[in-house]
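sanity check this fold:
=====
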Amino acid sequence: MKKNSILRSFLICSFLSLVLMGIGIQALFAANLSPNRWVKDIIYIWKLGEAKGILDPIGIGINSETKKIYVTDYSGNSVSVIDGRTNRVIKSIPVEERPIGVCVNPETNRIYVVNGGSNSVSVIDGKRDEVIGRISVGKWPAGVCVNPRTNRIYVANEHSDTVSVIDGKTNGVIKTLSVGDCPVGVCVDRKTNRVYVVNGGSNSVSVIDGETNETIKTISVGSYPRGISVNYTTNMIYVLNSDGISVIDGKKNVMTKTISVKGYPNGITLNPITNEIYVIDYLNDEIGVIDGKTNEIVEMIKVSAPMRACVNLATNKVYVTNYYEGTVSVIY
C-alpha cells in the first residue's frame, strides 16, 4: 500500500514536471529566446594589481586584425586590453577622467578614447598599447567614430552641441561643426564617407559630408535618440530611440521604417557581414537580434547588465560590456 502511494506520488510529480517543462519550453519560444547563441564566456575587467570585477565597463572597440578588444572603465579612468584569442585581460591603460566611448582604426592600429570628464581624446598606439597623444575637444565628448579610409576621427561633444573632426595623421582638430542639441553618438559610412550624428536633445540625426566636413541634411527620428550604427554594405543606418529604432536609407537620407522594441534600449551595434543588428536592453538584461533583411526581431539573448556591444568581424563573436559587474560577456 505504501509502495503504491509512493509510486502514485512519483507519477503525479513526473507528470507535473513534464507539464511545467512544456510550459517553460513554450514560454521560451514565445519570448523568442535564442536556443543557438548565448553567453559562453565571461571576461573579468580589472586594473592590474587590483581585485577583479570592481570596474564599470562602458565603451568597447575591437581590432579584428590584431585580435584585441579595448574596454573603457568609466569609474577607474582606464582602458582594459583583452586578447581575443584567449578572452583574457592582458593590460590596463590609464587614460583621463570618465572615459566613455572608444573606436579603433584598424588601418593605423590607433585607438581613440573619449574622456567625458576631461573634454579630451586619448590616442593609444595599438602595437604597444600605450597612450601616445592627447587631443582637446568640446565639452563632455560622449561618442567617437573613425573612417579608416580617410583617417578622420569624429567626436560628438554632448554639452557643446558640436562635432570635432580630427586628422589622424597629425592628431589635431581640423574643424568643429555645430549640430543639434546634445549629440550623444556618431557613426561613419566608410564607403560613402557620410557621417551620422545622433542629437538626443532635438530628436534628429545630422548628416555630414566627410569630404567637405559640412552638414548636408538633418533627419527627424524618434524620441530621445541615444545610439546609432551604420551598415556600410547595405547603406542603411539604424538609430536607437527611446520608442524604437529609426531605419534610414543612406542613399536618399530619409527614414523608411520604425522597428518597435520593448523595454528600455540603451545601445546598438551591428554586424555588416551577417546583416544583424544588436539592440541592448540594460533594464531587462537582454539583447535583441534584428534581421537586417526583414527588420524583424529574430532572437532574444539573456545578458546580465548589458551596456554596449561590438562585433569581432573575424570571428562573428559579440562582446558586451556588463556595467556594475566589471565584466564583458562573449556571445556566439
Notes: The radius of gyration is 22 Å. DSSP finds one helix and 28 strands in the chain. Residues 1-30 form one domain.
